[in-house]
Every structure is written in C-alpha cells, then in structure tokens.
Amino acid sequence: MITKVLMPKLSDAMETGKVIKWLRKEGDPVKGGDIIAEIETDKANVEIEAFGSGVLRKILVGEGAEVPVGDLIGVIADPADDIGGLATSPAKPAAGPAPVAAKPAAPAARSAPVSSGAGPLPAMESYQSVPATTQVVPMAPAAAAAGRVKASPLARKIAGQAGVDLRLIQGSGPGGRIIRRDVEAARAPAAAPAVAPPAAVPARPAEAGRAPFVIPPRPEIEFEDIAMSPMRAAIAKRTPMSKAPVPHFYVTSEVDMDAAWVLREQLNSLAGQPKISVTDMVIKATALALLKNPGVNAQLSGQAIRVHHRAHLGIAVALDQGLITPVLRDCDAKPLARIAVESRDLAERARGGKLRALEMSGATFSISNLGMYDVEEFSAIINPPEGAILAVGSVLQKPVVEDGQIRVGRRMKMTISCDHRVMDGAMGARFLQDVKRLLEEPLRLLV
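-> structure tokens emitted (447 positions)
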C-alpha cells in the first residue's frame, strides 16, 4: 500500500512549510504513528507522523526546502510497490541570502567557550532547546575544505555583519545547523564609543519575535526597528482576519474560587498524583459547559453554523516569539488528572518545538489564561474559525460580603469573547453561568 506524505496545512493562514529534518532515511521501515520528520511553519516546529506502514521509499523534499501546503514530500510503500509516478518532485530548497564572506574570529575565540551572557537569552529562530553556552571549535579540515557549513540565512547575515567565521562555530540547531544564537554567542563584545548621542539605528533582524518587555534596554540610542519574526508576522496577519470582520461581544463573570482552591490543595497533597493547576480545572469546567451549551462550541461555516459535539480545546501558550495554541482533544471525556498531565506535556512540547501536526489544528474553542501574570481581567481575540474564546484572570484574595459580613475570599474573573454572527449575549451568559457553577461546586469536575 502506498502512503503519500504531504506538507500539512496546520492553520488557515499557513501557505508553505519548511522541512527542518528527516528522522528516517530512505529505506528505513516505518509504521503508522512513527515520527518521520520535523517541519517549520510560521508559528512552530511540528513533528510529522506516518499515517501508513511500510518503507520510506522516497524523500522528495530535502532538509531546508520550503514547499506549499499539500505538496508531496515523501512516499511510504511496500518494497514491491511501484512508485515510479511519485519519484520526482518540483520542490526546491528555499532561497536565502547568499553566504557572506566573514573575517576569521580572534584566535582566542577558537578554543574557549563563549557564554551567552548573564542577561535574558535572545529567542531562537526555531523552538528547539539549546544549551545556554556555545562551544566555538574549529571545523574538521575536510568539511572546511569542502565548504559544508550548515547555517540559517539569518545566522549567515549576522555573522557577515559581525565578522564571525562560521567555520569556527559548532551549531546547536537541528543536525548541527548554525542558528542565530550560536553566532550571537560567538561574537566578541564591541567596544563602546566614547560619545554615544541618541540616534535612530537601522532595522535589525528580528530576535525571533521577542516581546518588547524582554528586549534588553539600550539607553545609548533613541529607538530601533526590529523586523518581525515569522511567528509575529503570522500573528499580525491573522488577528485582523478575526478582529476586523468578526463582530466580537464580551461577557464577564466573577467566580468564587474558595472551594476550588481547597479541593486543588487537597488533590495536590496526595502522593503520586499529578499536580492540578487552576487552568486544568478551568479546562475541565469549560469542556463540560460546552457539551451543555453546544451553540457556543460552534463556528460560522459559509451560510451555516457548524455545531461541534466534542470539546477540543485550544490552550494558549505564551512564547518569547509570540503565542501558540496547541489543541487538547476530547477534554469532556478525560478525568481531571489526565487533563493535568496532558496539558502540561502539551505546553512543554509547544515551548520545545515538539508538537505533532494533529496538535496544531482542530480546536473547537480556546482558553487563554494570563492569571500567572497578575492580570485580573482581559478580553481575548477569537481564534478563527472558532466562534468564541475564554479569557481567564488571576485568582485574587479580596474582601467579599456574605450575609452582611465582610471576609476575605478568593475570586477569579472570566471573560468570553463571542462571534455575534454565531451566538447572542444570552447564550454566552448561560455558558459562563455553567462554567462558574462547575468551578464553585468543584466536586462536579471529578465525577
């Protein structure tokens, strides 16, 4: 049986994807569910699974090549299958800046490890975990003679500007590829000018979409323009597609979290049990409320409203590069402990660039929690094509009045953003009431 390996479409805005590396070679046996390759989208690095068993007969798109979604990138088949018509591909490596001749680095840099610095680390070009320091070592003579230096276009550009010889750097990216962080770590600090009057500076390459609050201060200049990373560019393109044409309306409710807080502490005190977070409890409550209010678990589909009867929740995860929303499926059918394990695993793999293709799409509703940043209340933008998103704030201790008495209680605010084309205010309010009731009577989350 022949199985085509296609470049997946992981979002409505995705048009192309880049093959980062193949985890299987031509001729390797594979079975359904095996991870066979990593691809780079505008928002994340994603692992591709094999959907059939057999042998990886042909790799049609090499590492570093960028192709449109839906294009054939590989073929899985039995050894006896005829794949003659699938054995070629028009895909070519993505064009990048030509390598820039770089000056050799200072001799001292050839043998000593260069620390990345004590301050915040610059964000990566891809979401792979890399060490905090980069060892600068000479390349093997044969490789240097052949000129085989694997480096990203951005790394080449920065190396050319800084006078760093790429042949002296050990890459920490996929397959030993030199990425931006490696070049930054190898750069010798430049001497500060005697007089640095405030001035504008030319635009510099994006620091992988780092948010303004983590950009290191540079008081010697007045301002600087930082080019968008692919993720930030995708967000800039996608959010107007939601906020501008989609008529948002917002409903806010305050939840008594006293009982939920006590239950969470009791569950977390049990030995051998996964730690439960407030987000986990909100996920479970939201999923159960969506089944009771299917009109909220809906989206506009042409001239119809598509109502979903399974709760696949997108969980917003903040990265230095931007925001990514991996999908936790069938949350209504999973016990709270399993949601806790899977949501934590999903977030960790999202930060490490290890998500799978199926975890990047298919959400029916999304949750964004900024409570860990001491945000009391906010309104989120709907993630199309979904019809709503829930914004969750901090659990705060505040004075509350009960039976004419003032006491200290724990309260949390939630705001649902709704697509008015799909639902009305009363529908959103009833949904929030059900989420609120489930969190205020948290034992319902365990049955």
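The first strand starts at residue 3 and ends at 6.
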